[in-house]
Structures are given as structure tokens and as C-alpha cells.
Amino acid sequence: MNQESEQKCVFCDIVAKKAPAYIIDEDDLSMCILDIHPYTEGHCLVISKRHVPWWHGLTEEENTSLFKMAQKMANRMMKKFNPDFVFLYARGRRIPHTHLFLIPTFSGDVLDRFFSALENFQESPQMLAKLKEPANMEKASRLLQQP
Ligand SMILES: [Zn+2]
């Protein structure tokens, strides 16, 4: 990463303590901060201290640090917020600097509903294909033909 691009990266600025953030914890290679647009109370981001766009581009040591930090924070979230579980995902489309989303998740919250909808979408082609099978078409036809 050249210097100009690094200056435009908000996570690099946070790591360098040039931008404000709610820093929760850090070690030599990773940092945990509160997400400023939380989905639920306590929603955090675990970021690498080095500017690397994708988590799979990190060194083994950096990944170990990142996931150790995520596990430590997830256990703390379970203790403090008592969610069903702590959701973890990595994207990076908006800010291409490695960050793990760590989100205390409750049944029916916005992420739970979103991912349930995605899972339904994943399952529905199979269900729809089954409806088209001749035996099922005949069954539906017979049912509807009866008054
Ligand atoms: Zn960066």
C-alpha cells in the first residue's frame, strides 16, 4: 500500500490513533473497536493493524492474533450482553482493510432476519423443484379438483 492510499484508510488512521474510535482492546497485531454503525449493542470490529485488504492475505501470526482477539471479545460479549451467540463475518467491500464483524445476535434481530431470509432463498429452489415433480403436481391437481 502506498502512503497516499493508506492516508485514505480510516482503519489505518484508527490504528495510528489519528482518528477517533472506541478502542476496546488491542495487541501487537490486532485491534478491537466498536462499530460506529452498530446492528446491536456491543457490535465490534476486529481489525488487523497492518493494512491488508483481505483476512486471507494476512500472515499466519496476524490471523492467529485476529481470531484470538475475536474469540476473546465474543466470550466477553456473551458475558456482558447475553445474546444467543456472537455472529462473525468478514467482508471489506466498503473499507478494504481486514476487519471481522463481531455482532451479539438475538433471535429476530435485523441480522437474524436477514440471514434467515438468505437461508430461505438458498433452500427454496429445492422446495420449488420438488413441487414440479409429477407426483406432487398430480397430488395438487387431485386436491384442487375435489370440491
Ligand atoms: Zn488500512
Task: Using brief descriptors, characterize the structure shown.
five-stranded antiparallel sheet, 2 domains, 46% helix, elongated, HIT family, subunit A, alpha+beta, binds zinc ion, 5 helices, 147 residues
Low-pLDDT parts are none
What molecules are bound to this protein? zinc ion
**Shape, per Cα inertia axes:** elongated
The CATH architecture designation of the largest domain is 2-Layer Sandwich
**CATH class of the largest domain, please?**
Alpha Beta
What proportion of the residues is helical, as a percent range?
40-55%
* Structural class estimated from helices and strands: alpha+beta
State the total count of DSSP E strands: 5
Q: State the order of secondary-structure elements, H for helix, E for strand.
A: HHEEEHEEHH
CATH superfamily of the largest domain: HIT-like
State the CATH topology of the largest domain. HIT family, subunit A
The domain count comes to 2
Percentage of residues in strands: 15-25%
Average the pLDDT over all residues and give the rounded result.
91
> What is the makeup of the main sheet?
5 strands, antiparallel
Write out the strand line-up for the largest beta sheet, numbering strands in chain order: 1-2-3-5-4
For the termini, the CA-CA separation is 72 Å
